[in-house]
Every structure is written in C-alpha cells, then in structure tokens.
Predict the structure.
Amino acid sequence: MVIQMRHLTIQENHPVPITSGSDAGGVSLTREEASQLEVYIEENHLNRDFIVWGNRSIRLINYVGFIQCPYFSMEILPKLSLDEDTLRSRHTLLMMLDEVYQFNITATASSRLSAQPYSLFHIFAKMYAEELLFEFKRGIHGQYRTTERNGHYVKGKVNIQKHVKHNMLKKRPHRVYCSFAEHSHNNVINQLFLATNRLLQKHVKQGDVLSQLHQLNQQLFDVDQVKFTPDMLQNVIIDRNLSRYQTAIHLAILFQKQLTGGLMIGRNEAFSLLFDMSDLYEQYTATLFQRYLPVDISVQDNTHALFNRNGRPAARILPDIVIKQPDNTVIIIDTKWKAYHSGRGIEERDLVQMYKYLNTYPNCQCVYVLYPQAGTSAVLSNNVYTLRNDRNKKVIAKTIPLTDKQTSIQFLEQMTLQEHSTKFGE
C-alpha cells in the first residue's frame, strides 16, 4: 500500500492536536504519527524540556527547523506574533540563520526562498546544490600535494635515498624513485562536499535537487569518500582561496552537524534539521554586535564568579553579552526568547539572575533583558527596575524588532551607544 506523505507547518510553542481517527486533517497528527514522532524523539535524544506532551496534543518549545518521520514531515517556525504569519516567520528564521552561519543570502533571495512551497530543509538543500554547481562551473577546488612514484622515467626530483633502497640495491636499473607535486581534487573540502551530497541524497525528495546532487557527484569522481567527525568539521578553515565556496562550505558543515537520522519504517527514514531557538537568538544578537557595531564585546563572559573557595572562583556566572564602554563601565545584555508582557514584566527568576550580574560586575550600572518584539508592539513604559539599595543600578526590559537585519542593528546601536549615554533608556 502506498502511503501519501503529509507535510505540516507549525509554529513553536503552539499545540498540535493529536486525533483519535486514522486521518488527521489540517495541522494535526494521528496517534500513529504521534507514536512515530515519540520514537524518533527518544532515539535521537532530543531535549525533553523542549517537548510537552498532552493527552491530545504535543507542543514543541524552542525547537525550530524540520522533522521528517516515515509518514509525515513537520516544519517548525519561530512564533513571533499571534497571527501565525508563516511567510514572516520563515523569513525571520532564514535571516537569523543566514547571519549566524554566514550563508550570504541576499534580501531578494531571502524573500524568494521564504515564499517557496517547500520546507526549510529543502530550501537549504536546494540553495546548497545550486551554489555548488555554480562554483563548479568556474572550476573545482584543487590543491597540489607531494606524490612519490617508483616509475620508469624521471618526474620532479629523484629521491636519492629511496632510489638507492628500492632500485639500486635490488638491481632495478630501469626504475627511478621520484617525488613531485601533483594537482589533485582529492582534498578535505571536496571530500566534505561529496559526503554532504551523499547525505542529502538519502533525504531529498525534489527531483531537480537530486539531479543537481548527481551532477556534483559525477564531477567528484576522483575524490575519496570520508565520514566527517565533529573534530574534522571544527578544523575546516576557509582561506582566501576558498572564499568563493564560503556559502556552500557553511551549508555543508550545517548539514553535517545538524542533520540527524534514526527511525526507519520500510524505505522511509526519519531525520531532522533542528535548532535551539534560544541559542540562535542569542548568537544572532551577538553576531550583529560583533560585525556591525563599534563595541568591545564578550560573549558568554566567564571572568566573574559569585564566590571564592581556597583562592579559586566558584559559581561562575555567564551573562550572554558583556559590552565594555570607553569609560570602563559595563553593559550586560541577557537575551530571552519568549514574549514580554508589560503587565507582568520581567519574571522574578530572571530578575534574580540580573541581580547577580549587577552585584558581581562592579562597573555595571545597567542590565538589559532583551526580548523579541512580537508584531509591532514595543516596550514603552513600566520596563525599568531599580535596585532598592542602589538606585543607580537598573534592569531594563527591551524588545528588539526582527523584521529585517538593518532595523535590528539600528535598535541595538540606539540602545547601547545612545541611550546608555543619557539615562539608560528611561
């Protein structure tokens, strides 16, 4: 029996109903599909804190990306507003991934990709294949490597020591042992491309992308098949000779690191391409500071601790972003991927965390708690908390617009460079 593959697009933190019947309509799962998802979650050790099972629903918190189960697929987009604007959510996610992973997607291309009737995984797969094919038309990356050969003619330099050992002592007068530089496509970058092509071929369903991957593999016929470990990926360096391959390399590393598989039913394999939205949001914010603003920034700063024990720091604190000002004062920014409600304000446990920052960093007068801006709303009032024992020290809630990168940069610049020089944004 041929089972029709279903595709769902949902938003994180939004309950997905589980129906009791054999057919699920709209954005919902059958019990069989929910069971497949549960097995996949268990086998691949996904973070249980991000997955809330109800009696008749499942809610994915913080996870965004793509999950393919044997009989259905699910795209999970960030929840930015109440109107569930899929196009806007996908555009924001692409923008953030592009900045963090350096895909170099233009604004026009981002809008085009956001409107594609495909999942996030297939968008990235298509982008990778098209980018690599374009660069291969300009020439496949090659490197010279030293090769040794015991042949019948001289090529390069004669290796005297090995020629004596292998030929003269063994009375082989018609052979000569040489060392020479040989141009080869069999290098670590092309091995990475080949490994990624083969990985994607297992999961991609689009005929045009499969055809492109096949063309790429034909051009890499003389490249060894290598299985990449996390350490090998960490050691991939993009120098000036590889700059034109930058987008393809970053996408290849992304697939190698993030694409996980497991459950198999018949010929249908389950896999996923998932991101922790809290981590991505923090990395995106830090990256904007590092690349576009003239600030002295430290990410996940570990230079301060709450206590000393036997002369050594104990209970280190790790604020997301620490900015050192020219006057040696410090601004701390803590990113929170959740909605900010003006009525309730900053959650008490978060305020306790900010209190630790203010008391541990002696030169810090202001901590910003940075939330994503939902829709067109912005924090305008009742967003400033003052320490009772030191009214000069403040915690301020802010919401950053994520409609486009330039707007985000302008907001961060105003918040840290302009407002801090006045009254901390009051």
